[in-house]
Amino acid sequence: MKVIAFTNKKGGVGKTTTALATAAYLGQSGFSVLAVDMDPQMNFSLASGADLEQAGTFEFLKGEPIENCLQQCPKYKILAANRGLSRADKEFDQFGREHLLETALGPVKGYDYVILDTAPAMNVLTLNALTVADAVVICCQTDAFSLEGLDDIVENVNLAKKYYNPNLSIAGILLTRYNVRTKISEQAMDEFWDKAKDYGTRVFATPIRENVAIKESQMRKIDIFSYNATCNASEDYAAFTKELFTIVEGGKKKWPENSPKPSSKDTPRISIPRQPRKRTTARRR
Ligand SMILES: Nc1ncnc2c1ncn2[C@@H]1O[C@H](COP(=O)(O)OP(=O)(O)O)[C@@H](O)[C@H]1O
Ligand SMILES: [Mg+2]
Prior knowledge:
By secondary structure, the chain is an alpha/beta fold. It has eleven helices and seven strands. Helix 1 crosses helix 11 and helix 7 runs parallel beside helix 8. It has one domain: Rossmann fold (3-Layer(aba) Sandwich), CATH 3.40.50.300. The two termini are 35 Å apart. Bound molecules: adenosine-5'-diphosphate and magnesium ion.
């Protein structure tokens, strides 16, 4: 079982979007995936169509057995965030608070991958994620501010590694919301690579292109591959997930070539009535 965390202290850089796509793609490729929403903003859980009134991450961290906290999504199981999770900083004030997730996951068996979506903060929940993760993916938007913020994130990851989790490694930096048409994106790619080399890591080969299908799929609570398997974002996230798989598995395992394709049964567990569309222009994907 490999645990992968998606992190950045900045919000809006594609952590949740990437965690959703990775969980879905691994799931539809035949792997058994547990997603844990570690962000009190609950975006991962919302986009997964989870019931936010049920027991989830918060109760699991408090010691509740996993089977009482799990929900089934089409392609993965989820420990959803609920309102309790926003109390985590106050609630979890005991010694050893960094190890709650590690302890809770200890007896959990039967998953190939655990996907952790984290909050845009180095709070107790993020620290719990870094304490148990094998690999961390740093999601970055392709701009100067993200580049500047990198030192700080990497320092935090290195501190987590030093004090809590010697196993932790940075799988790489993923560029999100990439605009292929601008020169700036190209230049930024080079600068991110320079930084990545300094940190002893890499920039993932496939940047994730800006694509309106991402927002549409999240509004409809459908994963990007079921929403539109051939859009740019699906292509990019599929390539990214395979690269991540190779890195996390140290090149020892082969990607399952005959992985089952998503079927029409892959609809969200909870269906939300569609809002009438006001726009008259054709949708771009
Ligand atoms: N590749 C993309 N193309 C278009 N919109 C995107 C893309 N990636 C993320 N977004 C949108 O950007 C916003 C922030 O992304 P999100 O994954 O929630 O970031 P974070 O979890 O880091 O705060 C969301 O509204 C999401 O739908
Ligand atoms: Mg998020």
